[in-house]
## 1
Amino acid sequence: MNDRVPKRLVARARHRLVVRLTIIGVAVAIAMVAGAATFVFWGAYNVSALQQHTEPVYTLLNTALNRSIRQRAEDIEVPPLDDPAMAEQGLRYYREKCVQCHGAPGISRDDVGKGMTPVPSNLAHTARSRSPAEIFWTIKHGIKMTGMPSWQFIFTDAEIWEIVAFLMQMPRLSPADYQAWVAEVKKASTSATPPVSTPDPERGRLAMYGYACIACHRIPGLVGPQVDVGPPLEGIGERRYIAGVLTNNFDNMVHWLQHPTEVDPLTAMPDLGVTEQDAMNIAAYLSLLD
Amino acid sequence: MTTKPAFSVLLMPLFFAVGCNESEVMSLPGDPAKGKMAIAAYGCGSCHAIPGILGANGRTGPPLERIAERTYLAGVLPNTPEQMMRWIRIPEAIDPLTAMPNMDVSVNDARDITAYLYTLK
């Protein structure tokens, strides 16, 4: 008899507590969403390249980056990397495409590489802290929102492994060693073009990201800034002319993609150095757009 | 059409912003409603897909949707109202290689057509 009343009271109190907590929880969630929306829409976030992330944000982003790369590099099979000829070829590519942003032993980054956030990593450090598979993945795919480009449409996998082979040597190179090696390598340069295979529309679709076509065109099936510097490519498979001057067929499209300024010297579409294989893949994809 | 004054007012700043001299300012704002009719009359739709024009679904030239937003006209000219008028009247003078024919479009029609095309955003 005595403990019946307290029990009911306790139940009621508990019920009230649950209701109150729920209301507080919902209110906090709404406030967070509203806060996030205000932050985004009022432009409170400073996107300046000179405004470094705050320490917690930096740590969070870096952790996400590390986990993402490790996860994706897990299944990559690493070929032998100790052939000196391989590293030497890698050094050539590195001097051509990477040193401006990343620098090298005793060599500073160029102006581009200095003004970026995040700053392009010191790759001697990277070679010590990351596995060859992770480095391979990073070079091949690039890193979104950092300025690190994807190189898979510039280099074949074999060529990327050559770069990796060079990078793995980097921690061991003093500035003087590096200079000596560069002097040695400056003599000859060789690069075999890979044989052309059947056009693959899906690779063509990806290649259009690699050549930054979306910086100027709206292209169905590709996500991008959606600008109209050039005509939208929707329906291009059915159009009678390319750029209003060339009959639209497969061979002409391949030619246009590789050499637009040869087709029409007045055109605002620049020559982008599209390889024959990539041009064929892209043409195959574009021919499907109706 | 009742929309005419509204369109003209909307388009005015555009033309001033482009920095035309006096005679061009006088010659510019056309009538988008008349332009729409002119586009139908010249049959531009047989070669172009043009929003708002009945049956305009040609595939010979590029679609003209959002043509007002295009950076270049025909891929070669900076897109301004004067250039648009020129292009519509004498495309071959701008790009001798072009497949767009000269259709003897009058100056007045070209001005009205331009006014209509600049409503496509």
Note: Helices of chain B lie at 3-17, 22-27, 32-42, 81-89, 91-94, 107-117.
## 2
Amino acid sequence: MATYTLKINGSTKKVDVDPATPVLWVLREHLNMQGTKYGCGVAMCGACTIHLNGTAVRSCQLPVSAIGNSEITTIEGLSKNGDHPVQKAWLEHDVAQCGYCQTGQIMTAAALLKTNPNPTDVQIEAAMSGNICRCGTYLRIKDAIKSAAKQK
Amino acid sequence: MEKNMPSHSRRSFLKSSILAGGGLMISFSSLAKFRPKGLMNEANLPEQWYEITGYIKITPDNIIKILNPNPEFGQNVMTSLPMIVAEELDVDWDKILVEMGPHDNSKLGPQFTGGSNSIRMYWRPLREAGAAARQMLRESAAQTWGVPVEEVTTKSGMLYHEKSGKSGKYGEFASKAASLPIPKGVKLKDVKSFKVIRSSQKNVEGLKIVTGKPLFALDHMQEGMLIAMIQHPPAFGMKLKSFDAAETLKMPGIKDVFSLKLYEDGFEQGGFDTRTFNDLLVVTGNTTWEVMNARKKLKVNWEPISDTKDTMAGRGQKREVIVPGGLESTSTHLAKMAEYAKKPAQQLRKDGDPETAFKNAAKILERTYNAPFLAHNCMEPMNFFADVTEEKALLIGPLQAPGWIEPTLSKILKLPADKIEIQMTRMGGGFGLRAYGHYLVEAAIISKKAKAPVKLVYSREDDMTYGIYRPMYTATYRAALDANKNLIAFHVKGGGIPEHAIHANRFPAGAIDNYLAESWEIPSNITIGAFRAPRSNFNAAAEQSFLDELAELMGKDPIEFRLELLKRAKENPVGKNNEYDADRYAGVLKLVKEKSGWNNAEHKKYSRGVAAYFCHNSYAAHVVDIVKKDGQPYVERVFSAVDCGVVINPDAAINMVQGAVVDGIGNAFYGGLTFKDGVPEQNNFNRYRMIRLREAPKKIDVNFVQNDIDPTGLGEPPFPPVFAAVANALYKNTGKRFYNQPFINDLTKKS
Ligand code: FES
Ligand code: FES
């Protein structure tokens, strides 16, 4: 066990956990932030995607001991009222079916648009193909990303 | 707190409203007050609710709340079912609040998500509930105003009496309406006048989903709650012999390690009880990560299981089933299937004299199709929260059919049903798997033993290797042609491990004079269950690929060939019990032909494949367009035509069909769970390939047949024909027929 002070969504949080604990579980079970989802635990599905200093990373393979001073953003911190352009586009296209994968999809998409405000189809495909949607909402995900890009 | 106002007896309301939804009975014989659940994000709601029917609440200040009775797993019933009520109630959709109903079959009907039945089951009851409520409000206004009820009209949640110029909001008349008896036989709206139904409305939980609210059971947290995980045997055909938990118990955050039996010996299993492994070796602790890690330190001895006898008491009849012991492998499965395919099989249907026709045939086409076990891979792994004491049980989690598992729980926990409360959470996918509640039962008995509230969590590996899979299937199709290339006989012989997939009374049965359908099955200890369009998902893949090859042999266009057969089935059907409506079947083929521009020269750059199917009372057809991308065949476009009667929420319905198409392409190309000595060879997404965004089509053009027929299923019907449409397009693209799923194996094989 060790104590970590983490910068999450603009505030600092203290946790006392095993250094190997993935950020995913720190968020979900120590900080009660359930928006970041568990899907595979092996960085193959993207359900657990967060931003680390603005870059999309899979939190299930990221030990809390590796965070240091980096800033974490989770879906809870992406916007105040669900009004980030990507979230708005998701609602406009009514993307979700079961919805389980969608917070991870949104976090990956938001990070993509931050570095590349006008991604091509191929760039969207490259960025988003690490996120599985078992319900098959990929077309709407792509359309929503394009809408969000236009809004920005 | 909410209070329900006293009301008259409602015991007769909708009592006779019974739908033939897959044999499920809906009885609303007791619509008395129900217990409302906690209200999230609705802090400003007034305290008093007046319950008008089991589905609708209207406050004096006109807040209208509609209860969704059925479990939500992504098919969007949280939105579409309340839309049906809103239509008949005559209120504006944007004024409606929707709440997930409690599990209570006596008040809310069958509450079962599966068999593409949600809309179909609730269509009439919900319309009647809405219409009855509207009628009571009119009656209430009529009495208040002293005018004849016939003169009271409604519009958008308002009541009007034109002659006197009186008007008022529903809410003003709600309390009085609640004291009126519920009317019977209220006239329903004319389909043509629908305003809410057939308009596209957004998912009512959309904002909660995109902001990551804790909607799913895996998100459930509670003071004093333990996390539990099960260490299951490494292979089907094995069971727990002994274990040493010393190392595990030394790990931080670990509470206990114990073993339990899921079912006691001789337990009579209901139709949806299933045990993948009966001995549960359980680790409990404070957090998921700690339990996951500590579980790895268990030292366990496993031993092989010999044949076991299961008593199945569900679905009508009681019977004994022998589950064979042994460690099974895919290679032996394939060999066994080939061997069984040659043996005499059970006849399912016979028309005419197929034997003689085959004997006299000028040409016979024979092809065999194979498909592997499939894992459901719901994105939210199986889990359940349970708080069980000697007196009562609370269960919170993802479940497609709480009413089917409650009797099991009642037996196992020795608690009466009224001491068991099951709360239904939004499911992170279901696809059939969550109709089986073994993980709920596991959570319940673990909680009872641990004497604590417990959340049982399956890791992805548990979920994939401890599953209730889509069976492994095979089928051999034969067609006999005369010297003029006329189709004179058709024969299908299908088998599976442990179940076959043949639907003997479906197309092309009914269209061919000499027809034979047969089946056989090989028992197995690998557990199987419903997977999106059970049986149909293989039946369609095989049959519709065969028809394509047959059409080619006969020199016919594949759509025209099917239409000819359907014409025959309509005008002069062969045999009885043909399950499909030939006109509606032909309808989707004609629509997809038109929308895809089938045979139009402008689509030349595409390798096109077509397939259609009927299941779950609906009809679907697809045209799949393949191009080469990076040297590999890629499904770039799909045109879909679906006939499911009235479409409640068109945009959401399109989403569902697009999802089914993507799911179908993914499973056709990549899906498959293989076994080696009882061990599933894929245990996570690094080995089990799922379709990714880059492999999904650029366009899926969804078209619905426009008619006013009562709605039928949509979650499943578009799925089965995708496989064959893909196979048929692949043939056009590669020159090779694809007989074995997943197709990626043959695609990457060096020729
Ligand atoms: S849970 Fe992290 S990628 Fe799947
Ligand atoms: S919406 Fe269900 S997994 Fe993506």
Note: The longest helix of chain A spans residues 102-115.
